[in-house]
Each structure stands twice: as C-alpha cells, then as structure tokens.
Design a protein that fits this description.
With 361 residues, the protein is an alpha+beta fold. Helices cover 60% and strands 16% of the residues. Helix 2 packs parallel to helix 8 (270-297), helix 5 packs antiparallel against helix 8 and helix 7 (252-264) packs antiparallel against helix 8.
Length: 361
C-alpha cells in the first residue's frame, strides 16, 4: 500500500512552523512601529498630525512592513521549529523510521513557498497603501500631490513634452508644448496649447492651441484648433508627477513604466531598476532562507532558544546589509541592476546548498 502524500508528521511539522511564523509576523510589525514612533514623534508633533492620522498611517504601513518581514519570519520559524525537533531527537527518530532529513523538512519548504506567494501579494498591495501613508504624514498643509511646475519629459511615442503647470488634484495642465522631430517617414511637429484637461474616458483634451507641421526645413504648415485629443500622451496626471514619487509607492508594472519614461528623458535609472527587481527577489528570499535555515538549525541542540535567536537575528541583519549593498552596487552601475538585486539570494542559496549537502540524511 502506498504512503499518503500528506502524513500526520507533515501536519505536525507544518503546525509547529505556522505557530512560530504567526507569532513572528504579528510581533515584528509592532516592534517596527514602536521604534518608528519613538524616532519620529517630535516630527509628527511639529507637523500637527492628529492621533488618528498617525494611527492610520501605521495601518497603511502594515503591508509594506510585512513585505520586508516575511523572509525574517520564515527564518525564525524554520530555525526554531527545526531546533526544537533536534533538541527532542524527533529528527533522529524520523531518520530511524526511514525518513530522510530532506523529506522531513518538506512541509517547511511548502510553507515557505506559500509565504513567498503571500509576499508577492504584499509587494503589489503595499505601494498604494504607502502612497496614502505618505500623504497622511506630509501633514494637512502639504501639497506634494497637487502641483508640479516647469518640467519636461519624453513620452513613449518619442515626443518631448514641456509643461509649465500641472495640477494633479484637478487634473489639468497649463501652457503645454509638444515637440516631435522629423524622421524619414514622418514630418516634424510642434504644438502649443494654453490648457489641457485629463478625462478618464478620452485621455488628454488640449484646448486653444496652434499646431505646426514641419515636413521639411523650409516648410511650415500652421493650424489653429479649439480642442483636440492627444492619443499619444497616455500618462495620467499622477504619472506626470512621477518624478516626486518613491519606488515604494509604485507597483511593479508602474515602476517599469516610470523607468521607461526616465530612460527616454536621459535620466539615471539603475537604482530604480534595483528597487523594481527587489519586488520579486525579496519574496523569493522566503524560500531561499528556509533552505538555508533548516540545516543550520540542526546544530542548535545545545544552544537552545538563545542560539536560534542569535542565528536568526544575525542572518536577518546580514541579509538587510546585503540588500543595501546591492542597491549601492547596482545603482552605481558596477554590476547589472537586475543581477545586483538577486545577488543576496544567489549567495545565500549557494551557502544553503553547501549546508544541505553536509547534513546527515
């Protein structure tokens, strides 16, 4: 008779992991919030933030905090659960029953994979919540979301837009100029409009302007218009303000689009590329860190809880340091930004393979 795919031992191991994992993900955010509140209480007071606004800002911060905390929670749960099984000789008993160490930790790997999927969800949920949090912490008199003045950028269609005034809240621009250089197939173009309004169903409606079509260096066809819809200007008012947004405020697709806008404008985007790839690399860390922590925890038989805490905290701090190093290395162009973002996982993954190979199965 074939064995059942999920055994009582699997459920026992998964339940021990889940118990420690749950306590960790509930405790870490509270610790982070308390430290942040102590550090920034004076700043919040100076900005005259209400208790409700500060409390709500921490509520919005939960997804981003959990996004960063989940790999550490997986590590703590792996080290403490495996350490407990080792101290009480449960792993030895399983081996005596013909269950290898790799099969023994399979439920932990499955739980770490589920945590990775959950972290990917948090990576998409966190950006809009972070944007709301920053609005609250900016204070009631801050207008970071309202206006932007005298800026230019290159669109996906190869046009250069110069805008004098952008009002995000009311979704309009004043004194807009659009320039497109001539190519072998298309004539050059210069458009000037006194005002443009964003309409969700149609896009940008430009009003009261002049359009110059320049088929050659000596010709210039001039048209005036009362209104027209620019189909090539696809950026929303919020995206036109994108230079003031933080990477933590943008989802993966939004950040990809933002990077494209900056690249067309000739801006340096290596650091943003690292931040974008970390939105994928950090969730994968949940799985890598479980493979690393499982064999490491088997040496905790005599160290007890102190050993588990020391190993988990040291590994977490080391990993955070590595992430900051990857941002610096990738941002300076010393290494490909995408490779730099994955480098901590690669290093820890190689060490995990080395440790797993040395475990007695």
């Amino acid at each position: 008779m074939s064995r059942r795919f999920i055994t009582p031992l699997d459920r026992y191991i998964a339940s021990e992991f889940t118990r420690i994992f749950g306590v960790t993900i509930m405790g870490f955010p509270v610790l982070v919030f308390v430290i942040d509140l102590v550090d920034n209480l004076r700043k919040y007071t100076e900005r005259k933030l209400t208790i409700k606004a500060v409390a709500l800002s921490y509520l919005y911060w939960i997804p981003d905090t959990l996004f960063m905390v989940l790999p550490a929670a997986v590590l703590f749960a792996t080290v403490f659960s495996i350490g407990t099984f080792t101290r009480y000789s449960e792993i030895t008993a399983a081996k005596a029953s013909g269950i290898s160490f790799y099969r023994f930790i399979a439920p932990i790997i499955v739980m770490a994979t589920l945590a990775m999927g959950l972290d990917l969800v948090f990576s998409e949920v966190a950006p809009p919540a972070n944007a709301e949090r920053l609005k609250l912490l900016a204070g009631p008199n801050n207008s970071r979301d309202d206006d932007r003045y005298n800026f230019a950028f290159a669109s996906e269609a190869g046009r250069v837009y110069r805008i004098y005034t952008l009002n995000v809240r009311n979704r309009y621009v004043d004194n807009l100029e659009i320039e497109k250089r001539a190519s072998a197939r298309q004539p050059g173009m210069l458009l000037a409009s006194t005002r443009g309004e964003w309409r969700a169903d149609r896009g940008w409606m430009l009003q009261s302007g002049v359009l110059h079509v320049i088929p050659s260096r000596t010709a210039d066809l001039v048209f005036t218009f009362d209104s027209l819809v620019d189909r090539d200007l696809r950026e929303t008012p919020q995206e036109l303000r994108a230079s003031e947004r933080e990477p933590s405020e943008m989802r993966f697709a939004e950040l990809t689009r933002f990077i494209g806008i900056l690249e067309r404008s000739g801006a340096e985007v290596n650091t943003l590329k690292v931040e974008r790839m970390l939105k994928l690399a950090i969730p994968v860390t949940c799985l890598i860190i479980a493979l690393f922590g499982a064999p490491l925890a088997t040496s905790s038989q005599r160290g007890g809880a102190a050993y588990g805490i020391a190993v988990s905290l040291a590994t977490t701090i080391l990993f955070l340091v590595l992430i900051q190093l990857t941002k610096a290395i990738g941002g300076k162009g010393i290494m490909s930004p995408e490779l730099a973002a994955w480098m901590p996982n690669i290093l820890v993954g190689l060490f995990a393979i080395f440790l797993l190979a040395r475990v007695r199965t």
